[in-house]
Design brief:
Blueprint lengths: L4 H11 L5 H14 L5 E5 L7 E5 L3 E6 L6 E8 L4 E8 L7 E8 L1 H11 L1
Helix pairs in contact: 1-2
Length: 119
């Protein structure tokens, strides 16, 4: 069951609280739009970089980390069992958050786990 929209809105607001007002609203909208189908969504510590948002569902996972200062924000989506994830870059300079680019990203850890389980 997807996460409650009010809970997701609150999490998005909390995630973007330190980002300037216009960019913060865009980041909130991106999080609410892209993580709406997730069953669990959480803010995770990014270590030395900005914190990120992690969403997990029965079909896969997604991760986004941005401080809102760059011209774009990247979101990585992975489907369970896939050897590659999809990275999508969204334009934070435009209100509609258009896609700037997308590319396939190998998921080495998942491939290693699958290889070990086949032995």
């Amino acid at each position: 069951m997807p996460v409650d929209p009010n809970l997701l809105s609150s999490l998005a607001s909390d995630y973007a609280k330190d980002i300037s007002s216009i960019r913060g609203r865009r980041v909130q909208r991106l999080v609410k739009r892209e993580f709406a189908g997730a069953e669990r969504v959480m803010i995770v510590n990014g270590g030395d970089s900005a914190p990120g948002v992690l969403g997990v569902s029965s079909s896969g996972a997604a991760f986004c980390a941005t401080n809102g200062k760059g011209p774009s924000a990247s979101l990585i989506k992975w489907l369970h069992g896939a050897a590659d994830a999809l990275e999508v870059r969204f334009d934070l300079l435009k209100d509609s958050l258009p896609v700037l680019s997308s590319r396939s990203v190998p998921v080495v850890a998942s491939m290693a786990l699958e290889a070990q389980s086949r032995k």
